[in-house]
Amino acid sequence: MSETAAARLRRILLLIPHLADGGEHRVSDLARAVGADRETLVRDLETLVTREDEPGGFVPGVQIYFTGDRVSLTSTPFRRPMRLTASELGALELGLAMLRAERPPDERKAVNGALDRLRAAMVHIPSDAVAAGQREASLPDPGDATTLATVQRAMAARRKIAIGYRGGSKTAATDRTVQPYALVVASGSWYVLGYCESSSGIRSFRLDRIEQIEERAESYEIPATFSVDEHLSDRKVLRAGQPRWMRVRYSARVARWIAEREGVALDADGSLTMEHPLADVHWGVRHVLQYGPDAEVLEPADVRTEVVRRLGRLMTRGAGEMS
Amino acid sequence: MIPNDPIFDDDDDPPPDRPLTTSEQKLQRWVDLLAALLIRQRHAPFDELAKDVPGYDVANTQRDSVMRTFERDKDELRRFGVPIETVKDGEGETLGYRLDRKAFYLPYLMVSGHERAAHGPRKIDHDGYRALQTLAFEPDELDAIIEAAARVRALGDPTLAREAEAAIRKLALDLPLGAVLEDAAVAPSLKKEHLIRFKRVEPPTEAAPASFSRSAGAMFVPPRRQADPSVFDRLSDALARRKVVSFDYFGMERGDRSRRTVEPYGLFFVSSHWYLAGRDVDRDALRNFRLSRVSGVELNPKKSQSADYEIPDDFSLRDHAQAREPWEIGDGDATAAIVEFTATTGATQAALRLGRPVEGNEHRREFDVRRPDAFARWLLSFGGDVRPIEPAEVRDAYASAASATLGRYTGAAHDE
Q: Which domain holds residue A156?
């Protein structure tokens, strides 16, 4: 009930143009059009006409008639809605900026056109208005914008894609045919999640690691049982199947950041020991090494061994080359 | 066609069941004032407008106090976005107030190629509406607007989502945009919120662009800890009115909460998190605050109608909001570091897109490094597929990070 007068004014200025064509309207249709429930709408209309004093020379601005569930209204001054306000335009501008970043240059025409149109529909502000431009937003880099556009087109048309994909620890791309089920933005990257015919299972592919992409003529269907939730764990995109687990101890220097991100509590000494789903050994190695000596793999043994092997090789080679 | 049983007949005006609240009285004054301005072609002085606004009852109240109410209403309506002009004569004396209808009313909107469509804009044959222009949108521009609104909603800022929705509802008066309640096919953590999603309700009959059925919008998985909606609302309000804020901030370095006083410069979203950029008054420095770590926001209550500070002209939120790598953040001067990637894994290929190219060697990149230790850890994450070339400072940081990490596993290092 603590709605501001401004929020109610905004709704009323939108409501009247819907109503003021001289015809009768169902309250429920109006409620849907302005995005309010029936009670709110009736309360708005009552506030407009409930006068505590004699209207006197009151402008014949608005007259309202209720008949059961129907309402009609006459109004001279409010038959068009108000233009877009700076904050309304600002919100859509932000969304269009994000969209522009996702699309290849040759597909940005619609985005730029939309922006021009919306700006032309914005209120003309007198000089004393507050400046806009107080918000900015950016999405993770999807890599090549053509890749994202191709995935979106293929998904919309339910067509398979053929991709050349180079995994994080693979030194060459492999060719795969994929039925794209969903696009997901998670933990700083774009992923396409889908059925990989080459490995006969659901896999996720980071968009910026797709090196070639082509839409195929064959179509596919998304199984009714598919759910994105099953492939998200710890807010990350996982491949299907039972993951292995990796137990890592983080020192007190970095533990707070990890605990905040993962939504867990610190251990009593300020450090943190927790388990992560382990997609593959190389992923595990890269994950712990980014924290340097502030993270140590406790289990499984093969990840520990690989960390030690890699660090040993790095140090021998580094020393040899520097001397 | 108007039914003949108005709910409040003039002869039988029922008393309201309850007194109107202050907020409702204000709403009535606003609507009456807007009507009084919109029915006039020319500017009108306050006393003329007041006759049409029962809330400005000059006969029964002190004129000064009514004037103050009017001034406040006018300011609040302007802040809401209504372009009320003050018309002055050559001497600077106020002649009256005016609301230009073309500056206020939404132009007629339509879809290109649908000039004769049944649901084209309903032109109003009435004074003040005839002169309105018509704006034509291409079908793929409408798709872009719908997608843009979905992106905005995915950002998780309720203020922004509300503004985008309000904009689309206005456009939907003329344009074929319908709202559908959608609770499927959104990320699990969003599912419970029953999102409103807009869609095109009318398939274009001719030459449908390929993008029309673009249902392949991405799902955004929000971070586990999100900012409190009230934090957004208060900071947005403070930004718009340029009011100093104070709030409790959980500092990650020290792991404790402290009260901060900040002049807000802007809100930005990067790497799935919202941040406030602003001048930390006590530290006299530009700082970023992650909104999910902010609580207990209070605006400076003094002189609520006037601005507390100005945002410096040379501050660009767009430049400031660029995503930065951890090694790029810091107050010191940047060192140019050259690195060679010795394998071509997916991870190193992605890294080769960062930094600047090094002429004559496509395996090398140059990076601006302010924190060599943070840079060394990033290099370490390539598991030996990278070699720092110069400067020595970065080579040393890399070697000692590798050695200290190996010490963890061979028992040569201890927790500090």
A: 145-237
